[in-house]
Description:
There is one protein chain. 34% of the residues lie in helices and 27% in strands. It is α/β, with parallel strands linked by helices. It has 2 domains: 2-122, Rossmann fold; 130-332 and 375-385, 2-Layer Sandwich (Dihydrodipicolinate Reductase, domain 2). The strands form 3 sheets. Strands 7, 8, 9, 10, 11, 12, 15, 16 and 18 form a 9-stranded mixed beta sheet that branches. The chain has a 7-stranded parallel beta sheet with strand order 3-2-1-4-5-6-17, with helices on both faces. Helix 1 crosses helix 11 and helix 6 (130-139) runs parallel beside helix 8 (217-224). It is globular and about 55 Å long.
Amino acid sequence: xxxxxxxxxxxxxxxxxxxxxxxxxxxxxxxxxxxxxxxxxxxxxxxxxxxxxxxxxxxxxxxxxxxxxxxxxxxxxxxxxxxxxxxxxxxxxxxxxxxxxxxxxxxxxxxxxxxxxxxxxxxxxxxxxxxxxxxxxxxxxxxxxxxxxxxxxxxxxxxxxxxxxxxxxxxxxxxxxxxxxxxxxxxxxxxxxxxxxxxxxxxxxxxxxxxxxxxxxxxxxxxxxxxxxxxxxxxxxxxxxxxxxxxxxxxxxxxxxxxxxxxxxxxxxxxxxxxxxxxxxxxxxxxxxxxxxxxxxxxxxxxxxxxxxxxxxxxxxxxxxxxxxxxxxxxxxxxxxxxxxxxxxxxxxxxxxxxxxxxxxxxxxxxxxxxxxxxxxxxxxxxxxx
Length: 386
């Protein structure tokens, strides 16, 4: 089997490639990235004979699609704003595909995947991706589902890479139409910092206050659970406290609207300038606590009784006690590993049909959980009667 790892010079998807090296059956692992110099460094770090490097620029769709032809799957680690083009490349190459983000730009290429008999799954990292598997694991044990609360704590610096800074700007854009909740059959747009809710995450993260975020779980779970009568779906998230304080201040002062200002002879977005500063500052590249914490709550009925299920995950600590999970890598490995698992599942033909599939349709939760457990990422489940 052959896998094309698009954008794998990045800090997150290089961890996906590491996982492929350590756990997969691929005999060819190609890193395709615009930054060939950094990609070569990643290949040297990995030190595996199956790896090669090519230059790939998704803005040149035809050339990049040509590079991908003949691969079983493309593991797409590019940032949100490139996913429309990167998915076009994958579709035209006639490969399976999976990416980290899943914000909907991929859907326009559904027919090409169907024609090629290939499957594309937008959004499979920790969140979205693993979160849907966790929600479905609980929902599948119920006769009816009333409420779903998806929450996560993403404990990483605000700007350890340009794409992460871009994610912050995107998710808290005051005008973003996709920041929605699902309530009584309708998607309702909400502003940043809407519907605060206390969520207790496993130690060392503890008590957090989380707000609605624009993640695809709201839409995909509404589709997957429509036959169970789901009435409410809310997706929340948080970053380290200092990150949240900064973003809240930027929002309160209107800076997240990215107003244009004059800098010398050039007009530039104010948020763009702040993002550039953060990417190049020490403050933007460090935080006190690293890692990831997913917390899913599902309320419904079983045999006429109302029940609440909670599932959360844990992983090796970032304190250096487990090799390979030190510091920032406790975050980046959490995101990168599920992407690699999904890529191999697709390459092996495990998806039920071709086309653009939501994670809930593409994969079985227990299969994903078993693979995560091999990597020391564990699920913990609790039930109680209401």
